[in-house]
Amino acid sequence: MCEIDWNLFFDLIKSLSIIIASGAAIYGINSWRREAKWKRKYELAEETLSLFYEVQDAISIIRSPFGHIGEGRTRKRNENERQEDSEILDRAYVVIERFEKNKEPFHKLRALKYRFITLFGKESEQYFNDIVKLTNRIMTVSGFLGRRYWKDQGRRKFTDEQFEKHLKEMDKYEAIIWEDYGENGDEIKRELEQIIGGIEKICNSVLRKK
Known about the structure:
mainly alpha, 2 domains, 6 helices, rod-shaped
């Protein structure tokens, strides 16, 4: 009958205990890392999606067709600017003035862009870029209307064909700066809803797992 070497036996048990404890520690560390990363993604997704909603509301305010007395008058006037020109240019400047009053969520969203891309992937960048492009489009068109289309209205001599083209183009641009305007529905609102839908899909992949 073999005699048990108890010293060897206890050394073996001790070695197994160390291996098991080490494995548990490694598993715990990895689990903590996964949990910490998930928490970062969750918090960033929550903050980013909230800001996209804020931007959506801000764009609605910027594009509101209802104005207030004195809006647009913060615009810097040119020397020798005629009163009638000032009124037209001020009306076009309302969009930019409203943006300045509601720009905080836009800036916050831009600040989160690269952190979001790092955690959620390069493909998510398009939604941030699309918001910037959409906003710039609204701003650009407002100036274009003020400097050209509204300014020419009632002053420039048109042929019937030219006037019809003028009105058609002016209507197209006004549908960009004014919400729920135009015969074909609100194209800007539709584009914005698509952007929001895309970022919702990415964020909710984390938010709905809690």
